[in-house]
Amino acid sequence: MATLTKKRKAAYDLLERDTLYSLEEGMAKVKEVNTASFDASVDLHIRLGVDPRKADQAIRGTVTLPHGTGKTKRVLVFCTPDKEEEAKEAGADYVGLDEYVEKVQGGWTDFDVVVAAPNTMAQVGRLGRILGPRGLMPNPKSGTVTPDVAAAVNEVKGGKIAFRVDKYGIIHASVGRVSFGAKQLFENAKELIDVILKMKPSSSKGNYMKSITAASTMSPGVKINTKF
Fold it and tell me: Is the pTM of this model over 0.90?
């Protein structure tokens, strides 16, 4: 059985067992119990009362966080030459088509988000086996398949994130870094939760938002009250 370090035990001691914190209190508590020596990511783990096997309950979407994620995302844009310049001006890190399709097919995945122009999807579609399992496959529903690649890049660089429910009915999403102020984390988390609440499918019965846990990397989870 694993033994808690003094630092981790001290962090657990700061949490009141079985207490459900308000979202605002919880974001402050996440900062308080952080044990990482680096600028850790702060994530929300939201368990929903849905059956992801049903198409209308497989919740997925995007949200633009008011204060961004605190992480500079590397964006790969698949587009034809006529769109390359605008993608680069918007801040895309990698821009092109054939060259990058070959690189990805060879195992290269040194990027965080993929944006694709619709007329490239015949080629990009071949990368599904590589990009799909990593959650990197561009999709019209997440705004990453679009003729306006520059706008998509701007949104991603400005704090737009994609989220989707996993097979256990849980959404995992980053809402910032430990270096953020508690108010910034609260506002980011609230924006994410509000968007997910609006997406409740009519076929989902009973309690839609079952639990919320906030945690920074390598640190104890803080239970958040789902009643706002």
Answer: no
